[in-house]
Amino acid sequence: MDKIEKFLRKVPSKDRRNITFTIYRLKLKDFEGIDIKKLQNSRYLRARVGRYRIIFCYIENRLKVKDILNRNENTYKKK
After folding, report:
1. Residue 39: pLDDT above 60?
2. What is residue 2's predicted lDDT score, i.e. its pLDDT?
3. Helices and strands counted in the chain (H then E)
4. Cα distance between residue 59 and residue 76, in whole Å
């Protein structure tokens, strides 16, 4: 089980549904209504889903989700 699956198991079901639906729309490149911004000095973007952030990029036209985070003051700091 990877980090993203483990995180999603801990998220309330309503939020999990919203996150997975947003990921599905990102795969289809259906960006309408999704709050997306490019992260500074990075090839990654973030999508806002309520209080959660999906960090992702496209590699060879395929969606790669790097992380899903609960928004706080440390969300965008490099590790």
Report:
1. yes
2. 86
3. 2, 4
4. 21
Polymer length of the chain:
79
Pick from 46, 51, 49, 50: which is nearest to 76 by CA?
46
> CA 5 from chain center: how many Å?
12
Q: What is the residue whose two structure tokens read 């960090």?
A: 55
What is 63-76 written as a DSSP string?
EEEEEEEE-STTTT
Q: Where are the alpha helices (DSSP H) in the chain?
A: 3-10, 13-27
Task: Lay out the sheet containing 45-49: strands in order across.
Answer: 35-38, 45-49, 52-59, 62-70
Task: Name the DSSP class of 43.
Answer: S
- Residue with tokens 């699956």, as numbered in its chain: 5
Task: For 74, list phi and psi in degrees, rounded to 5.
Answer: -100, 5
pLDDT by residue (tens digit) across 53-78? 999 999 999 999 999 998 776 666 66
